[in-house]
Amino acid sequence: MKQYFVYILASKKNGTLYIGVTNDLLERVYQHKNNIVEGFTQRYAVHNLVYYEVYKNILDAIAREKRMKKWKRQWKIELIEQSNPN
User: How far apart are alpha carbons 64 and 19 in whole angstroms?
Assistant: First the structure.
């Protein structure tokens, strides 16, 4: 059964945040950490996985990602700190 992940990366504590969606979290984090794909995470050194959620349906994952991207920054930080206080 396929799984999809909505994830948040951070450059450091209280640093720049990036929200994405993927079906292979380990591979995607590897790509971000090693600057394999040019873009936002490479430019701002956003490489640390700080939060993720698992979904069975890609449409649900994409909808969640889009909602989270519209959130206030503080809401994102609070979500991260609930499960990852450090």
Answer: 10
DSSP string over 41-53: HHHTT--EEEEEE
| Residue 76: domain span | 4-83
CATH of the domain at 12: 3.40.1440.10
Tens-place pLDDT, residues 15-53? 999 999 999 999 999 999 999 989 999 999 999 999 999
What is the distance between the alpha carbons of residues 7 and 78, in angstroms, rounded to a whole number?
15
Residue 42's Cβ-side half-sphere holds a number of Cα atoms within 13 Å equal to: 9
Structure tokens at 42: 């490479």
**Residues 18/8, Cβ–Cβ less than 8 Å:** yes
Q: 22 near 41, Cβ under 8 Å?
A: no
